[in-house]
Amino acid sequence: MSEVTLKDIRKSFDGLEIIKGVNLEIETGEFVVFVGPSGCGKSTLLRLISGLEDIGSGSITIAGRDVTRVPPSQRGVSMVFQSYALFPHMSVAQNMSFGLRLAKVPKKEIERKVAEAAEVLQITHLLDRKPKQLSGGQRQRVAIGRSIIRNPNVFLFDEPLSNLDAALRVQMRVEISRLHQEIKTTMIYVTHDQVEAMTLADKIVVLNEGRIEQVGTPMELYRRPANRFVAEFIGTPKMNLFDTELVVPQGGSALVSFGSALIPVDDRVAHLQPGASLSLGLRPENLELGSAADPTTAEARIELVEKLGGESMLHAHFPGSKDLFVVNVAGEAAVRPGETVHIKPDPDACYLFDGNGRAIGQS
Amino acid sequence: MTSPAMKKSRAFSPWPAAVFICLVVLALLFLAPTFGVLLAAMKSTGDIAAGQLWSIPTTLFLDNFREVLANPSVKIYFLNTFLVAVPGTFGSILMGILAGYVFAKLPFRGSNLLFLAIVSGMFFPPQIILIPLFRIFNALGILDTLWPLIIVHIAMGIPICTLLMRNFFATVPNALREAAILEGANEWQVLTRIAIPVSLPALAVLATLQFTWIWNDFLWPLIFTQSDEKRTIMLGLVNLNGQYSVAWGVQGALALMASLPTLIIFLFFQRFFIRGMTMGAVKG
Amino acid sequence: MSAPLFRAVTMARRLDTGIMERQNTIWRILLLAIPLAVFSIFIVWPLLNSFYYSFTNWNGFNAEYDFVGLKNFSKVLTTRLFTNAAINTLIWMVAAIVLPSLAGLGLALLLDSKIRGANVFKSIFYLPICLSAIVVGQIWVWIFQPDWGLLNMAISAISGEPFTYAWLAKPGSAIYAVIVAWSWQQTGLSMVIFLAGLTGIPQDLTEVAEIEGATRWQRTWHVVLPLLRPATVVVIALSVINSLKGFDILYIMTGGGPFNSSDTLAMYMYNESFKKYRMGYGSAISVILFLITLTIIFIYFRQLKKVDEIYD
């Protein structure tokens, strides 16, 4: 059964449409990540689900109930804010129990629930402190604790890790993941960081300019991006994209150009006219250095070599072009900037996108 | 007060010493008038008449203060002023809290314009509305009571209180309000349980400012009260100065005592006071 | 005043999906109702009434009065007393820009150089602002007292001859004496605003200038003062606006005298309305006062916006 259903959600601010018709089903217990560049509408979408923002049109169903016109606190959602939004004048325990106290829940029960949630998050020793006396990670945990205590149907996270430093971010990522496995509640998590999305999500929703570009598991998005946008957005380092066109020699099978080389492409392009313009996508890890004698290699000039220890990133460009692309080679690359090399693409790992950026017949 | 820059060893510069001496001289000049009142308050009328006003007294002469304290009118003036200043301060701050919260956290189309219109109210000389207010209070039959003073101070305090409260509330993150709403709080609960407790320093600033202004006010009681039992301290001061026209020492003691509450506030809450003044001025 | 509120209500009605916005609108109305009502009844309505009375010959007591059209205004604008009060107000304004503002700037610059005991000095210069204008006035009446006032005693001591000029009783000097007293009180306020402006100047800017070889004087003149422009705009506007409000101190020091020589518009308005009970006439003066203030506020807001655009 789906826990959250969004039907044709639209939202405008000052006449500017920010969410342009979003349909989405989220299954019970799923960890869903909304990811996209800043301004794509992912946070707005989360706020629409929470009810903090009214939707322009469409409907929202949570746990089988139409909550489109239900106030935020009665939607069965709870939210962890980017800034944690802890009340500075209240202790940790008071922060966590704020909602219960408003609802006039008996004191005994409040105490029990606070103790339980604190136990899960290992913050029992912090209950009497004020937010100011806590570290970033501890504040994060208190914010999550305040969410847990309300026993919501859906957890909402609005970029909760972006205020933490890099090391802590990795640690908290692991903790959130563990928490999800433990309590198995539906979670919707907004981030602009695709690594967070890839590592946390059961399902990723890639948003761009107020629309959903693609929905799928992390590996689906990595292996079969629906379009150029997703292809470029998912995966580090970014996928290389080359503007190219379809070449069909007489009697031969279709080819696309990769620099000076031609790559055979299968019958997925059968419906296209020769000369049709395409984008060729190749991830850095699917390029390698080859020899000049190999006809499937393309000549390129190295511009920059980044040695990362275990692997090296070669930034190169084709002769006569200024556009850089990245080649990921294992170990310490034995090439220098300015050197001419020959790049061998993996023909089985190339992505093709049509003039509108849509993926062509990815297998 | 030494900055890192000053700790660096440097050649001796005469500059700080010169500035310091300059400031000491200016400070003495600035203090002289106030000090003069203190001196006068501690001298007998005879001494002052003999041209001894500005000399340092050799004995502690407190008759002037005794004279002031024994005057029954003075007690009434003080009481009246408290009866106006306390509700006036509370009332105007309450108005500021209500309006400031809306402008900071629930803006609507045209709210900036409305805010600007309200705030600009603090720039106008009160003479502009003197006559109509006189007429309104006359019609209500409350002239020569303390009510018009309380009402006017609440109304006239709205611009500055709204300005300061809006600016303070604006620094309270929106996420706090939203978190509270998600937890089931309504707007009133957000205001009373989150926004106000978080803004306690702002309330201290406003309370010191408003109390001082209302305490020191002269124009409104001048217009709205007539009988001696309804006078506030500043009006009473002017009145008593006529009574003690040659008793300069008593006048001095009276002026000091009339300034005492605001002086105490200034000494203890100077930080709040200055912050309020600059905020009110700079953000205006 | 309620037009935006009304608009908010109708807007909320149109959006029938917006539960949040509808609740917000209800709260806006609930929270704004009392302050707006108080403000409208006791500030806005009287202001409109002032305009109304300015076209009548109401005397303050009789229920009956007649409309006299623009007669009050034509009378006001042609009266020598009004011109006199207007000129005095202008003198006060100019003095307000020069005296407390410059003194405040000077003090702020001196205090900003991290001098020992800066906080004590600040308190001393700021102290007069918490005193009532009545008390300040009384203090300065003593200082200007002809026979044993501090000023004349000092002059006598320096010149060696008895000096008994009656500062407040001579038409030529009365208003200036009041302005000096007023400036003594206002200087602290200017100083504090300039100090706030000075702390807002990033230290690296002056340090860069120092590294570039600028002398202390050059740093102040070329770096600090230009960056103080926003504070200057505020101080000047405040001084001008406060000078229009100057009443209490004038009331106690001279009462507008001698022979109306120290009358300002605010004083003149009070005397006409509450001494001579010419309320219609007084209303005309307050309307003029309103228009002057409005003009100044308009210029001030425009300057503030301009400054904001450059410095923010």
Describe this structure in words.
Chain A is an alpha+beta fold and 363 residues long. Chain A is built from eight helices and 20 strands. Chain A is 23% helix and 34% strand. A six-stranded mixed sheet of chain A has the order 6-7-8-3-9-10, with helices on both faces. In chain A, helix 2 runs parallel beside helix 4 and helix 3 crosses helix 4. Chain A starts with a strand and ends in a 10-residue tail after the last strand. The mean pLDDT of chain A is 90. Chain B is an all-alpha fold. Chain B has one domain (71-283): MetI-like fold. Chain B starts with a helix and ends with a helix. By secondary structure, chain C is mainly α. The radius of gyration of chain C is 25 Å and the shape is flat. Chain A binds chain B through residues 50-52, 72-74, 77-79, 81-85, 87-89, 98-99, 102-103, 146, 150, and chain B through 173, 175-176, 178-185, 189, 193-194, 197-198.
Q: Strand content of the residues of chain C, in percent?
A: under 5%
The name of the CATH superfamily of the largest domain in chain C reads MetI-like
Catalogue the unreliable spans of chain A: none
CATH class of the largest domain in chain A: Alpha Beta
Overall structural class of chain C, as computed from helix and strand content, comes to mainly alpha
Count of separate structural domains of chain A: 2
- The assigned structural class of chain A equals alpha+beta
